[in-house]
UniProtKB/TrEMBL annotation:
Sequence similarity: Belongs to the glutamine synthetase family.
UniProt name for this protein: Glutamine synthetase family protein
InterPro entries cross-referenced by the UniProt entry: Gln_synt_N, Gln_synt_N_sf, Gln_synth/guanido_kin_cat_dom, Gln_synth_cat_dom
Alphabetized UniProt keyword annotations: ATP-binding, Ligase, Nitrogen fixation, Nucleotide-binding
Role played: Catalyzes the ATP-dependent biosynthesis of glutamine from glutamate and ammonia.
Source organism: Leisingera daeponensis
Amino acid sequence: MSAVLTFETLIDQVESGTVDTVLVCLVDMQGRLMGKRFHAKHFVNGAWEETHCCNYLLATDLAMATPDGYASTSWERGYGDYVMKPDLSTLRPVPWLEGTVMVLCDVLDHHTHEEVSHSPRAILKKQVNRLKAMGYDAMCATELEFFLFARSFDEIRRSGFRDLEPISGYNEDYNILQTTREEHVMRPIRNHLWDAGLPIENSKGEAETGQEELNIKYAAAMDTAEFHTIAKHAIKEIAEQQGHAVTFLPKWSHDKVGSSSHVHQSLWQDGKPAFYDESDELGMSALMKNYMAGLLKYAPDYTAFMAPYINSYKRFMKGTFAPTRIIWSVDNRTAGYRLCGDGTKAIRVECRIPGSDMNPYLAMAGMLAAGIAGIEEGLELQAPTRGDVYQGDTGMIPGTLRDAAAALKGSAMLRKALGDDVVDHYVRAAEVEIEDFDRVVTDYEIARGFERA
């Protein structure tokens, strides 16, 4: 595919009038695109070198509030600037918006011009580079699950987010008849993203009313994070263009299954799968076993990156295809870690813990750091679990964001891999979510206790 633009091609398109807008974006802590819309002629005349943004963009919550407690920026420090440095290798068209292209930015300190360490792109890049220094390339893929609704974002917001009606009336897992009815949304998603240079494989109905899944081809870890972030953004915009809302909230209703974002991963060396060993019973190399043992040992440490909000933990329920335990198994969808492609060169591990609300840069960075630790420590992988992994109470995934934040805070492995400043920054992000939720009186409390308490 050759849809990703060169700067020279962009100049030609601007001069011909084909392109008049450039979205200059950074990836924020929540995995969203933030930035500016540039007149394309101004961008190619000089703004391609750098622009600026307020440094609170990497210290806000979901609602764009500016909570205190961050070492990097605060009211006391005056909320200064970061430099947004366009990475011209990420230039791509945005086919669902007229005359528009997009570029992602590295975030630099305004004074030193060094990358800001807690920027999601910088965090993942650091772990990718650690592996490169060891001689390996990290390859990943993410699955994007989400719900489509009958009404638009504005209609649902005006209703107070009540009486939510999915676009379909029954479980549509793999159902071609039902997904045909949704092609006015899903077809432009697939086609526009393909034309934007994302290697889209397919979409399908998922295991609930109105639930969809989009799959993107296996790629280098940095590319995968970019594809995921752009796809998630595009899905929201394209659905809105068709009059529908979409949510990546992992659990929007207690009586519906949740939405995940499984992460497939493997290491390659010199263009060959380093996880494969044809002499092994399952095809697993010693390297893969070390890596997977690291994933398992340190899973609690990076759970806050895979499940970053209060709602994230409502998804982990028995019998819903969402995992509850940090256990691996062979091609078994009840386990937190599933071995896929056993006995073949496509062998890989699928982590089933992340929810649809994850920031892919952070989640994959945590996994890669854990895998590296497993290799460096020569960890031994225990035998796979068989049968229904829901049966048992050992090796449980942290049950709340509070538990996951404590594990992140105490992680010597992640402090060594990411840096104390990065760990402390995202511990504070988790604390902000907890503090905000703890202040709120929920509908559940009122209905349960109004009369009977």
